[in-house]
Amino acid sequence: MVDWHAVAMEEVERGKRDFERRVKEGLKEINGRLETAERRWEKEEEDRRHEWEALAGRLMTTEEKHQHYNDGLLRKMAVLTNEQLNILHGFGEEMRLHFKELQAEMRANREATLKMLDRLPPD
């Protein structure tokens, strides 16, 4: 005899493990993308500072370094915000596709159930 409750619980546990695995992988990917954006920003800021010093023909003063740092922080916020928006957009697309798959599965289950009910003998 098959314990259907145990089978259902195994299915739920498998689904939970799969979900946790996907969340970990997703977080790893997101963190990697943000780190890449931050490294790109750091390189661009260093290049920008060198370019300014080359054009000015001198090193930055303390006040200019402070202003450059503040400007850089604003650019960093813009770069990271843009990357976060791209991540959220991708996540939204993925959720829409998942929702459509679930809708199709529920529709198929409903149709199968209705077909089974049509085959039952009348009372």
Explain this structure to me?
There is one protein chain. By secondary structure, the chain is mostly helical. It has one domain. The chain is built from two helices and no strands. Helix 1 (4-56) runs antiparallel to helix 2. It is rod-shaped and about 95 Å long. The model has no long low-confidence stretch (mean pLDDT 87).
Summarize the structure.
This protein is an all-alpha fold. It has helices spanning 4-56, 62-119.
Write the layout of secondary structure elements.
Layout lengths: L3 H53 L5 H58 L4
Keywords:
123 residues, rod-shaped, mainly alpha, single chain, 90% helix
* Structural domains: how many: 1
DSSP strand tally:
0
Q: Which class best fits the helix and strand makeup?
A: mainly alpha
Oligomer: single chain
Query: What's the N-to-C terminus distance?
Result: 28 Å
Q: In percent, how helical is the residue content?
A: over 70%
The main pleated sheet reads as:
none
Unreliable spans: none
How large, in whole angstroms, is the Cα Rg? 27 Å
Order of helices and strands: HH
Number of contiguous helices: 2
User: What proportion strand?
Assistant: under 5%
Mean pLDDT: 87
